[in-house]
Amino acid sequence: MTTDPFSGSVPAYYDRYLAPLLFEPYAVELVTRVPKRDGLRVLELACGTGVVTRHLRAALPDSATVVATDLSADMIAYAQRAVPASGIEWQTADAQALPFDDGSFDVAVCQFGLMFLPDKVRGFREAHRVLAPGGQLLATVWDSLAANPYAAEMAATLDELCPADPPRIVQMIHGYFATDRIVTDMRAAGWEDVAFSPLAITGHGPAAADLATGFAHGSPIAQALAQRGVDPQRFIDAVTPRFVAVGGDAPFAPALAAIVISGNR
Question: Which domains does the chain have, with CATH numbers?
């Protein structure tokens, strides 16, 4: 089995079922924070299926450059097809070991990717290195499970389905939100000017079962279920009523909470 949890059919499910509800509204907001000047050099980290990338390219002048990177080659391949706009350079890259020279970019953007980095200080240090003096890092991380009730219900469902070896994926995704820890990590990587903006919104999706399907087939949960011999449909059937309880059935409107991190080089 591949070690890439975003390979195979995962990107398609991710883009269809998760992106519109979870990632699209935050992408729109994040891109409003990016300066729109001529010649701007933008690096996107953990671009996934290109949700933020699409908005970046549309918002920036033609003279700006956008380099979109992701650790997953399958995500990059999908994003290239999903976002056919010109003026985007797509590249597989590890955010902890970026293949770019010092000072290559003016802005680095990362939406919901920092949580996945095994060595976050190293990731912050690399972002700092590839930015020119005066450059800016703009990143979004999910807030806690308590602030995202649908995610808490997902974690509880996985605990029940896999009592002997519950996946901790949801806890990891929602486990990097404490601002004091983030500040400590960023300062260890050379960042001094750091600020945070909480961002709570209500998500909007056609049905709770759609989000359940997205997580079962379009997230690292798919790999975790397969490794434990759990049919994805069991997860969908178990978590959907839990989602309904916190966001309604159809339409589905869950509370979402994230934190925008900004660092000035």
Answer: 10-264 (3.40.50.150)
